[in-house]
Amino acid sequence: MPRNYRTSLFIIIAAALCLGGISGVSPGYAQNSVQFSEVEVENHFPDELLFRAWVSSAAGEIVSAKFVYTYEKYYSSSSYTKDTVEIESGTKVFLEYVLDTRDFTTPPLMPIAYHWDVMDADGNHYTSEPEIIHYSDIRFDWQVMENSDIGVWWHDRPESFGETIFEIAIAAVEHQQDLFQADLDYKMKIIIYNNSAEFAAWHNLAHDWVGGETYSNYGITVQIVEDSGYLSGWLNNVIPHEISHLYFDQVTYNSTVSIPVWLNEGVAQYNEFVSQDWALEEVNAAAKDGRLIPLSSLATGFGAFDEERVYLAYHEALSAVTYLVDSYGNEGLGTLLAAYKDGITTEEAFQLTLGISASQFELDWAASVGATNYAIPTARVLPTFFPSPTAPSITNQSTPVPRTEPTKKVPALPCMSVLLLLGFVVGIVWPSRATKQ
Question: What range defines the domain where residue 158 resides?
Answer without folding.
Answer: 142-436
